Input
Amino acid sequence: MRYFAKGFLIGPLCICLLGLVWLFAFQPRLTAAEAQDLKAQFTTIPEGDLSGDGPAGKEETQLDLEALQAKYPDVKGWLTIPGTVVDYPVLQSSAEDPEKYLRRNCDMKWRMAGSLFFQYDCTPDTPNFVIFGHNLTDGSMFGVLAKYEDDVFRKGHSRLLLQTEGGVEEYAVAAVLKTDAAQLPFNRTVFASDADYLSFAAELGVSVTSADERLLTLVTCAYDWDGARTVVVARRVVPSDLHRYS
Output
């Protein structure tokens, strides 16, 4: 009877362990693989590069966001941080269900890693794009954001690329914060005036001189206290600024 009891306990324990491995190891990898499959499916080579006349290795691929949105209307952009694992679609839902993609992919399948998603009230004209993502222990999704507290890592990975309906925009990391929404309203998207926006940017530790200087705010969980968040704020790079980040 004693051996039977041991066997009875060991079986469920093994099942639980396998479930944890599937949940915390396989699931995040599945999400990353799905993102890359999606990108490959909707990536094209410009027609001018198909002739073979150009220098070898000079072809430039581009994501066909319009075609991607035709199949998945809630995909509003694609975020890439070169040199990191961040290369994911960015989804967006509504005020009625703002965290719809917290644990879902664009096919609405349950995923431990969920999806990156814009705050529900972000629009193409929003001066502060806010994107949320999970902080996963394997470093996927927004698990990389904590590394920006290290100056060496930050300098080597300061360039962010966000593609939306308006095209591809480049951003440069300008501030890294450990805070929460009660201390600092980092997720504000609506401002009463240009002066209000400039004051907000200054609170984040970012120097802007015009309301046309858009910010990109990446947010993930931190575990220093209840409600803590790691917030990486980047400033849009315009052509006249390129020498500052080269």
